């Protein structure tokens, strides 16, 4: 069996089920009807007005991490990174790893002139880029214990005190500019005797969210977990991650959103095992269906789909697998965001730049090659959100000045042809709103 047959074994076997569920889910969960009421400045309805509705920005969030913002080795590469990121994504995950944000106690790296740390662009720089380009920022992560600074003592009370201070400072500085905050990450990855004492506390999740809720009053508070606990070790309502969240919610812990990583971190020779655990559409839907019962939205927070090489067939397989997975996630009612991890090959974690045999570089899991050329994977994501899942509709007002169109939720540009003149307006067409718009021309 060739690699392509191995990777798409379950997708091929379940093609009819998957295609039907994806198509129905997208129609039901990602699209709706907008009602337009067009009037003149005196309030009289305008009939016969031609309208063109064009989706400008999806309400559904899709993005990648922004860890290489101005971190590449040449200006040309940095400019290309910024250009290609904003062309395709509407969300960016920003690095708030405590160890790298505050390597020296009391001297956090917030400002643009702070000392450089590889793969850790400072928050002020990231936010400037996001705000200039209409990209929603998201923070990763308030309490990620393995990334605690060396100066934090392995003492429970002192760790809590220092985390409280960190939460407070970040909320004061960035709470109004960053809505979504991952509060705690990878608690299922505990290494028993290697981890810090506070990480082993039975209420580490509850404490972290309660403390975050104290300072981040109007923010989205997200729990995040690794791929193994999220997908591979799935046992329906007996799944460890599910039980952890269920227990926390029963204890009135303010978890707003469930984060699930999706890193296919398997060596190439074990890809058949990876596909068995993570590449079965029926199982993927079962996982999402189960976690949806917790009545919290789901984010696919960190995605790595390996190509394993620069070979054309490997890159095409990566792209097709991304298309299949994104379609499943996008179609599911509970999912609110899909976030790829590393955009560029050669700059992943635990490896020197460009060393494709080391660390996470081994997987060739980026959407761009090391030279910044676009892989098929990048083009697939761009095409999904800008062409396949895109709306451009023409309609005309009736005798009562009303018109309707069906489309994907998001920000729209409406162009009106009124008496030979062209007028443009913007509307926010949201899944969470009634979507009845009165427009005065």
UniProtKB/TrEMBL annotation:
It comes from Hungatella hathewayi. Residues 63-384 form the GH10 domain. This is Beta-1,4-xylanase. GO terms for molecular function: endo-1,4-beta-xylanase activity. Keywords: Carbohydrate metabolism, Glycosidase, Hydrolase, Polysaccharide degradation, Xylan degradation. InterPro entries: GH (IPR017853), GH10 (IPR044846), GH10_dom (IPR001000). It is an enzyme of class 3 (hydrolase). Its EC number is 3.2.1.8. PROSITE patterns: GH10_2.
């Amino acid at each position: 069996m060739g690699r392509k047959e191995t990777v798409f074994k379950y997708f091929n076997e379940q093609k009819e089920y998957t295609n039907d569920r994806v198509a129905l889910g997208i129609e039901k969960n990602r699209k709706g009807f907008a009602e337009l009421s067009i009037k003149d400045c005196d309030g009289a309805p305008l009939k016969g007005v031609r309208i063109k509705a064009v989706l400008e920005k999806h309400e559904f969030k899709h993005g990648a991490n922004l860890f290489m913002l101005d971190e590449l080795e040449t200006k040309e590469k940095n400019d290309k990174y910024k250009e290609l990121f904003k062309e395709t994504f509407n969300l960016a995950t920003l690095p708030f790893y405590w160890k790298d944000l505050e390597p020296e106690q009391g001297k956090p790296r917030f400002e643009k002139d702070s000392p450089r740390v590889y793969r850790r662009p400072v928050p002020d720089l990231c936010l400037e880029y996001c705000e200039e380009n209409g990209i929603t920022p998201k923070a990763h992560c308030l309490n990620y214990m393995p990334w605690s600074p060396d100066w934090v003592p392995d003492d429970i009370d002192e760790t809590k005190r220092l985390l409280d201070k960190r939460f407070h400072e970040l909320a004061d500085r960035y709470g109004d500019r960053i809505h979504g905050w991952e509060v705690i990450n990878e608690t299922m990855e505990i290494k028993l005797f290697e981890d810090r004492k506070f990480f082993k506390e039975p209420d580490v999740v509850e404490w972290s969210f309660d403390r975050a809720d104290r300072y981040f009053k109007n923010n989205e508070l997200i729990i995040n977990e690794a791929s193994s606990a999220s997908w591979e070790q799935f046992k329906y309502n007996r799944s460890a991650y599910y039980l952890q969240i269920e227990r926390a919610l029963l204890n009135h812990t303010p978890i707003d959103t469930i984060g699930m990583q999706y890193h296919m971190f398997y060596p190439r020779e074990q890809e058949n095992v990876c596909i068995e655990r993570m590449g079965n559409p029926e199982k993927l839907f079962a996982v999402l269906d189960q976690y949806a019962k917790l009545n919290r939205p789901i984010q696919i927070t960190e995605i790595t789909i390996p190509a394993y090489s620069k070979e054309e067939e490997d890159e095409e397989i990566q792209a097709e697998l991304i298309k299949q997975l994104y379609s499943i996630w996008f179609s599911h009612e509970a999912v609110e965001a899909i976030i790829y991890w590393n955009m560029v090959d050669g700059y992943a974690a635990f490896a020197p730049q460009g060393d494709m045999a080391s660390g996470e570089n081994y997987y060739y899991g980026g959407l761009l090659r090391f030279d910044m050329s676009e892989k098929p994977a990048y083009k697939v994501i761009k095409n999904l959100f800008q062409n396949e899942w895109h709306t451009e509709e023409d309609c005309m007002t009736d005798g009562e000045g009303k018109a309707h169109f069906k489309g994907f939720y998001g920000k729209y540009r409406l162009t009106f042809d009124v008496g030979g003149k062209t007028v443009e307006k913007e509307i926010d067409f949201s899944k969470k709103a009634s979507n009845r718009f009165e427009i005065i021309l």
